[in-house]
Prior knowledge:
By secondary structure, this protein is of the alpha/beta class. The protein has helices at 5-8, 69-72, 74-81, 100-119, 158-175, 218-226; strands spanning 46-48, 57-59, 86-88, 124-125, 147-151, 179-183, 195-199, 211-212, 230-231. It has one domain. It has six helices and nine strands.
Amino acid sequence: MTGDWLLGATVPAHPDDLNSWLTFPGDPEHGMPVLARYDGPLPSEWLPFPGVDEGAGTHFFVVDERFERVFRSPARHAERLSRAGLVLSPDFSVWREMPEPMLRWQTYRNRWCGALWQALGIAVVPTVGWASDPESFFFAGLPRRATVAVASIGLGDAEGRLLFERGLAAMEEALDPDRVLVYGGLRWGRLSRAEVTEVPYSHWAPRRGRVLDGIVGDAEAKVLRAQGGRVKNGR
C-alpha cells in the first residue's frame, strides 16, 4: 500500500489509546480532521467489516465492538483495508443519551480514521451520523457537493425517525451532497438533489456458523464461505 511512511515513521514505541501521536489538519470551527472528496465509481457489492474483498466496498454499520480495533490498532487494520475497493469511514455510534463531549469524540474518531486511510491512499467515503438536534460539528471536516454515507436503521420509535429526518435535512443544507449512500435504504426523509444509492442491509453474526439474512452479494458470499460461514438466500 502507498504511504507506509505515515505509520512506520511516526508510531511511537508505546502509543496511547487516544492516538494523540498523529493529528490531521482540522476544520477551523471544530478542529475535526478534514476529509477529501471521493467522486469515483461505487462498488456493486458491500461487506460489513471485517469483510474485505478486492472490488467490493467495506462498511462499518455494525455494532461498535466489531470495529473499535481500527482505532486502537490503526496500522494493522489500515493495511487490511487497503485491499478493499472502497471504504466508508467507521460509524462510531452517536446516541441521543450521550453528552455532547462524547458525541464530539465519536465524530472525531470517525474523521481521524477516514483522514488516516486517505493519507495512506485508501479510497474513503465519509460516513455521517447525528444525534438529538443535529449540531454543526456532526458535519465538520466533510467536503461539500461530494459523496457521503448515512444509515437509516436502528431508529427505534417515531421520535428517532423524526430526528433522522431533521438530521438528513440539516446534512443536506450543510453539505449539499452529490451522492448519498444509504445503508438500509431511504425509508424516511427526502433529499432534493442528491443521487441516492442503497447499501443493502445485512446481518453478519459473530464468528462461526454465520447466517446472513436478506440478499447477499457475490463478494460477501465468497468471503463468508471462505471463513466457514453459511449463506442464506445467497446467489
